[in-house]
Predict the structure.
Amino acid sequence: MKFEKLKFATLNSDEMLKRSSHYWEKLKSRRSVREFSSESIPLKVIKNIVSSASSAPSGANKQPWKFCIVKDPKLKKKIRVAAEFEEKENYAHRFPEEWLIDLNQFGTDWHKDFLEEAPYLIVLFKQVYDLKGSKQTKNYYVNESVGIAAGFLLTAIHNAGLIALTHTPSPMGFLEKILKRPKNERAFLLIPVGYPKAGTEVPVLTKKTFNEFAKIY
Ligand SMILES: Cc1cc2nc3c(=O)[nH]c(=O)nc-3n(C[C@H](O)[C@H](O)[C@H](O)COP(=O)(O)O)c2cc1C
């Protein structure tokens, strides 16, 4: 293994305070949005966003993820039809009562118009093992690694002035079939990206306070 000098610039505490509070302010305005306009976005922006996500740390640097960027309307339609099929089942039979009550506040149901309306769907797959030709090798901390990359992705989308929904129309095996993914990949998240429809509203939610979500020792 070769080593290189770390690129690092020390900030003074005023600058750190300013930057950390600006960043917090910025992240606080991120919301999950379920109504998308069909306005287009340059592909280069999406590529930058996905590249930011793929800079995430991962167990033994295995980078056990694949970001499939879907802009083809025919594929988006196929994904919507398959997702709505699963969500119809979820809402009708599979979600337990408690889950349905928890979902009530979001006003969601099985309709997923946004899967066709959003200009891009980013389908994030986890690679449960690595596959080079027919050779299988191990990946480590796959869920943790892909979860962190997903977080990077959502903040990069927000930073670019776009909106997204973290969507999980489970079971998501249909995404592996429609996008013809190799056998080591499992769908992790389905994330439409774009602009909100004019006049879009989001549910009023309460977030935990600092003392609820953190403890200083
Ligand atoms: C792992 C995960 C799965 C989610 N799945 C769905 C989903 O399938 N459909 C949906 O409408 N929202 C989904 N959400 C969005 C959450 O409902 C949303 O993040 C939460 O209500 C907080 O709202 P906010 O993102 O606006 O802060 C999911 C979020 C996460 C993190």
